[in-house]
Amino acid sequence: MTDRRPNPFSCFDRRYVIEILPSIAVIAIALVMKFSLPRTPDRRLLLVGMSAAAVAWAFVVTVAAIRRLDELQQRIQLIAIAFAFVATGIALAVMSFLQAAGVSTPQAVYGCTFMMVVWAVCIFVLNRRYR
Amino acid sequence: MKNEVRQLRGERNWSQGDLAAELEVSRQTVNAIETEKYDPSLPLAFKIARLFGKRIEDVFDPGKDRKSK
To answer: How many Å lie between the alpha carbon of A131 and the closest alpha carbon of chain B?
Structure first.
């Protein structure tokens, strides 16, 4: 992809936003249906199916956006994702040790948020390095 | 890796953006190659060499330290 803008998150361009909008819309509809309609087994299955399809589409769109990047940006993404993955693994391991020792720690569900923050910081730092 | 990309580009009065457009990469990638912060892939290195009408070894020099590794 030819992108002359000095944007560290250039893979998340207008095309990506447009492509991922259906996923966000489907998840929003599923949430509204979950809380506004009575729960039946069929409806529950429908909601799960809708959410799974939306997440799968978001995954496909995100991978496609990264594939559109040029080789340097792909390298930056790879390093950032690898670094975020390892940092999250270490953080979760430390948290489990602390929990075993009786120390109060954040819930493991925040691991995903932590991973995204580390990824974003890595992208920013690496883009400065290769600027 | 040492390279002659900046010099070759300068001889043709191309901007980094012009070269980036020819190579279908970002301007950031061209700048990173010129400042030797990033070594291009083999396909991109060949593309650069062909664009300038040179052999790949005339554009890129791995240096003595790299050869021994």
So the answer is: 6
CATH top class, domain B2-54: mainly alpha
Cβ within 8 Å, pair B25-A6: no
Q: Give me the interface pTM, i.e. the ipTM.
A: 0.80
One DSSP character per residue, A14-55 reads HHHHHHHHHHHHHHHHHHHHHHHS---HHHHHHHHHHHHHHH
The verdict on A20 and A61 lying in the same domain is: yes
Domain chopping of chain B, boundaries: 2-54
Distances, alpha carbon A64 to alpha carbons A5, A13, A115, A122, in Å: 19, 12, 21, 21
Contacts of A4 in chain B (CB under 8 A): 17, 20, 26-27
pLDDT in tens, B1-43: 899 999 999 999 999 999 999 999 999 999 999 999 999 999 9
A115 to chain B nearest CA, in Å?
26
HSE of A36 in the Cβ direction (CA atoms, 13 Å)?
6
- Residue to mutate among A9, A70, A74, with most B CBs inside 10 A, is A70
